[in-house]
Design goal:
By secondary structure, the protein is of the alpha/beta class. It is globular and about 35 Å long. α1 packs parallel to α5. The two termini are about 15 Å apart. Helices cover about 30% and strands about 30% of the residues. The protein has a single domain, classed as Dihydrofolate Reductase, subunit A, CATH 3.40.430. Strands 5-4-3-6-1-7-10-9 form an eight-stranded mixed beta sheet, sandwiched between helices.
Length: about 180
């Protein structure tokens, strides 16, 4: 049985993107990216909303993007090897391998997917993660805190959500702090 993990990069004030939707401030250093690779290697399936899928698909559709360094090339291989489920009411198809499109987020189906998974499942993107968090499906939150304050934007967790968490691990990677929390059920 796998776990459902929400992993995100966030500003110190808790946003994944600023008020203008920008997140260039979150671009990881080589060292942080290598750390991310180690965390992502055991993921068997990624769950994405449309926007996050459109951001992430470059790891398969743009060979030049992944060829920047050995670390990014490795991440491309990790990403391509995993299954992907994209939840979107507007997309009519997907153009990456090992990817299927679902038009609605069904918490029962996601719970069944995670329960039957041999590897962990990752939910990516704050909007889809919000739905999973609100449905009580997320087992673990992993946040990379970037030393920047952006003053508003897309919150890493939905406003008004209450979940008790237990700190499991904390690491300093370059100037970024990685926090790993288990949802206290």
């Amino acid at each position: 049985m796998g776990q459902l993990i929400y992993s995100s990069i966030a500003s110190l004030d808790g946003y994944t993107a600023d008020r203008d939707g920008r997140f260039a401030w979150a671009a990881p250093s080589e060292t942080v990216h290598a750390y991310v690779n180690d965390l992502e290697r055991p993921i068997g399936t990624y769950l994405y909303g449309r926007r996050m899928y459109e951001t992430m698909r470059v790891w398969e559709t743009d060979a030049d993007f992944a060829a920047d360094s050995p670390v990014t090339a490795e991440y491309a291989r990790i990403w391509q090897a995993a299954d992907k489920v994209v939840y979107s009411t507007t997309l009519t198809g997907v153009d990456t391998e090992r990817t299927r499109l679902e038009h609605t987020f069904d918490p029962d189906a996601v719970q069944e997917l995670v329960a039957s998974a041999e590897q962990d499942v990752s939910v990516g993107g704050p909007h889809l993660a919000a739905a999973a968090l609100e449905a009580g499906l997320v087992d673990e939150l992993q946040v990379f805190l970037v030393p920047v304050v952006v003053g508003g934007g897309t919150p890493v967790v939905p406003l008004g959500l209450r979940r008790d968490l237990v700190l499991v691990q904390m690491e300093q990677v370059d100037d970024v702090t990685w926090l790993r929390y288990r949802v206290d059920r």
